Amino acid sequence: MSSARSTDDRTAAARIRDAAIVSFGQAGFDKTTVREIAAAAGVSPGLILHHFGSKAGLRAACDEHVIAEFARSRNEAVDSGTTDPFAAMAGIEREAPMMRYLLQSLREGSEAAATLFDGLVEESARLMEHSVEEGQLRPSDNIHDMAVILVAWQFGGLLLQEHVARAFGAEPLTAAPAPRHIRAVLEILTHGVFADSRYEDAWNNLESSGEPPPHGETTAPGRGTGSGAGGSAARKRTSEAKER
Amino acid sequence: MSSARSTDDRTAAARIRDAAIVSFGQAGFDKTTVREIAAAAGVSPGLILHHFGSKAGLRAACDEHVIAEFARSRNEAVDSGTTDPFAAMAGIEREAPMMRYLLQSLREGSEAAATLFDGLVEESARLMEHSVEEGQLRPSDNIHDMAVILVAWQFGGLLLQEHVARAFGAEPLTAAPAPRHIRAVLEILTHGVFADSRYEDAWNNLESSGEPPPHGETTAPGRGTGSGAGGSAARKRTSEAKER
DNA sequence: TAGGATACTGAACATGAGTTCAGCGCGTTC
DNA sequence: GAACGCGCTGAACTCATGTTCAGTATCCTA
User: Fold this and answer.
1) What element of type H or E holds B19?
2) With contact defined as beta carbons under 8 Å apart, do B223 and A82 qualify?
3) Are B124 and B85 in contact, with CB atoms under 8 Å apart?
4) Which of A38, A173, B6, B9 has the fewest CB atoms within 10 Å, measured from its CB?
5) d(CA B123, CA B138)
6) A86-103, pLDDT tens digit by residue?
7) Full 3-state SS string of chain A
8) Half-sphere exposure of A47 (CA within 13 A, CB side)
9) SS3 content of chain B, % helix, strand, coil (to 5)
10) What is the DSSP letter of B211?
């Protein structure tokens, strides 16, 4: 009957690791106890330490496994010629606890998360460049930086899933975003939010005029990330020195 | 700074609460110990329990205070006629630990975070509508939904600050985003990322044809949140050299 | 088949953290 | 002036949790 468990019955170490990925992904590293993982994997707490040395060692193993798994799935996507990276990731996201693990890692700031984040940025940038050539995306000389932002927004939105879902009156657990959600995202990514390019122009003027990047006061339109509203852009001068 | 103690020395309870906001904001609720807070506030651990009943009670008090404080600062912004919500928030964000507290709450999913998130969405939507009337934002019949997304992205990006900063080669601790960051955000919010409205149109057709929202496969362009697309490099010169 | 290593268990240990509690100083009230 | 209440202390308690360890079963090798 090993056929049911496709990869045959995993070794105890693998069961522990998989159970840990699930638990860490659900409750986070700190709130998950070794005993819980042991119970979920059907082994004794001692065995975990026997195999992984410590709880931290277990996490390291999970990190490594998840990173490898993501890399594998990415390669598969590339091989199969999928153009959309998130279509590829959707498969993972939907059923696998690994996405939850990734999100928790992102939340907790583990090192694995940094690796994955950087990998996703790089890959997204590459795919975006490809899409520009295909005429799907608008050209820009900032593709890489935009990829950073878009990946951050993507995962940031996922981190706040609960709140976003609540706002859209959807179940927080659903993997698929609510139609209203999709619609709003599409609208923003298709048209932007500003009525014209005044803010962008103002910023470009600021930069090209050799002005050193304003610190602390840039917030007006630049920070617009969030609400976009944006006030009077460039006319904010500042005396840097004020500091503290 | 001595003279600054305008409100005279706060009561021990207030000192505890303020110290807790700082500590919770830096390390998170779980990783902060009652003893640490006590030390920071210059009181004994026992006093914290005396005043707040429990560590959870202390958090509740912090939540309440932060929520009230945010509401106050919002009202002030409204009274002073500030058009840009994030300009108003920048004041808080820059110097106050409350933003850090908020972000940690968002990370940990506390109830206060939900309240604040919803409040910010509502306020952003209102301000965005106002900005549309002023001609700064492009009109839309989805303003509220877009506000949800933008607030989520804003805070999501803040949650991933560390990774974003790393990608831009900036210090993770800096409050002000890197120039490259601002530039990329402005570009996206000004022009969007798609070359044309094909994805939006496709989605609208899907919806108007009465199709139930596709599940799990919507990902292609819809999910575009993240990388959706790609661009051409065009990389080149520009401010890069200057930066650093 | 013997012997040893490896997988594994479960009780015990150590520590850290939240919480309890008896008591102290001090201002206020009767 | 004594009694009371309140803010406050700090040692002690309890419990959860990561970790250790002595011991047992199981499998591989000579």
Assistant:
1) helix B12-27
2) no
3) yes
4) B6
5) 18
6) 554 455 554 578 999 999
7) CCCCCCCCCCCHHHHHHHHHHHHHHHHCCCCCCHHHHHHHHCCCHHHHHHHHCCHHHHHHHHHHHHHHHHHHHHHHHHHCCCCCHHHHHHHHHHHCHHHHHHHHHHHHCCHHHHHHHHHHHHHHHHHHHHHHHCCCECCCCCHHHHHHHHHHHHHHHHHCHHHHHHHCCCCCCCCCCCHHHHHHHHHHHHHCCECCCHHHHHHHHHHHCCCCCCCCCCHHHHHHHCCCCCCCCCCCCCCHHHCC
8) 16
9) 65, 0, 35
10) P
Cα–Cα distance between B33 and B20 in angstroms, integer? 9
* Token output for B127: 């301000």
Helix (H, G, I), strand (E, B) or coil at B159: helix
Chain B residues whose CB is inside 8 A of the A156 CB are 152-153, 155-160
| Pair of tokens at residue B76 | 């002030």
pLDDT tens for each residue of B113-147:
999 999 999 999 999 999 999 999 999 999 999 99
Residue A194: strand pairing partners: B137
CB B137 within 8 A of CB A193: yes
Instruction: Give every CB contact of residue B31 below 8 A, 6+ residues apart in sequence.
Output: A30
The predicted pLDDT at position A133 comes to 93
> Could you identify the residue written with the tokens 């609400």?
A227
For A179, which residue in chain B has the nearest alpha carbon?
Answer: B213
Contact B149, A184 (CB under 8 A): yes
* Burial class of B172 by CB neighbour count within 10 A (0 to 12, 13 to 18, 19+): exposed
A137 phi, psi to nearest 5 deg: -110, 155
- A67 CA, D22 C1': Å apart: 37
B98: which 2 tokens?
Answer: 């409350």
Interface contact flag, B203 A182, Cβ < 8 Å: yes
d(CA B184, CA B167): 12
Range in A104-113, A114-123, A203-212, B90-99 the model is least confident about = B90-99
Instruction: Retrieve residue A78's tokens.
Output: 């590339």
Rounded CA separation B4/B21 (Å): 20
* Residue B236: exposure state from Cβ atoms within 10 A (0-12, 13-18, ≥19): exposed
**Mutate: best of B227, B235, B239, partner A, most A CBs <10 A:** B227
